[in-house]
Amino acid sequence: MTHELHNLTNLERISLDDMNARAAMLTRVDRKYVVPTDCLDELLALMNPATQILEIGGKIEQRYASCYFDTPELHSFMDTAHKRRRRYKVRTRSYLDSELAFLEVKTRGPRGHTVKKRMAYDFAQAARMELSREGRLWVAERLEAAQCFDGVGRVDSLLPVLSGTYTRSTLLMADGQGRATIDTDLNWDSWGRELQAPHIAIIETKSGAAPSELDRLLWANRIRPSRISKYATAMALLTPGLQTNRWTRVIDRFFTMRPTVQQALAA
Description:
Layout: E1 12-14, H1 16-23, E2 27-36, H2 40-44, E3 52-54, E4 62-70, H3 75-81, E5 88-95, E6 100-108, E7 114-121, H4 123-127, H5 133-145, H6 152-156, E8 159-172, E9 179-190, E10 193-197, E11 200-207, H7 213-220, H8 230-238, H9 248-254, H10 259-266
Parallel strand pairs: 1-3
Antiparallel strand pairs: 2-7, 2-11, 3-8, 4-5, 4-8, 5-6, 6-7, 8-9, 9-10, 9-11
């Protein structure tokens, strides 16, 4: 069931071009927060009323689908689990309402900044969870440039290991110094094991070195950043035998004993 964020509907709308012109944030500091959906609207009501919200095609909530690629040995997951400096993620991201897709590579830059590179990708190919030869070569170039590994051989072995869907709202802070995303209706699938998390939202702030207005609002309400990765946390929950220690606190607080999670793990 879609969780509607009623306190976002009165915000001023901004187009994608205008948002990217003001705060593209492809190199940024990311902070993630897990918020129960039953208190989300109350929290958002406290935001600066001059905050703007992204509108695409008349909609302020966009449906997304992602597919994550990893090696058979799950190098990307393991690098994240062990907090290696040269870790990376490879995924396709599809915008379901506009039928657009991108291939993306996320790496860690200097001082812990997240660096995201993307290229336009075939929507139908993304829906089939395929990684084209052209895409693999592009990924290899990005990862070699980021010194993640000496790339082509390992990139040739990348295969789809996790898919997910969610609904996203995107905010531009009132001072223009940062943006944020709010993801709800979270669903994941890995090799036929499904995980649904309608009870939580993931808020991700993206700013420069200084925290954004939304970060400060969350901290003032005793909501601190959480160690969560859509890819790694879902993989840890859905794949027997994978280590979960980096995400134990989030799993214990927000996922343990949830019926949908227990059904997935027992499948």
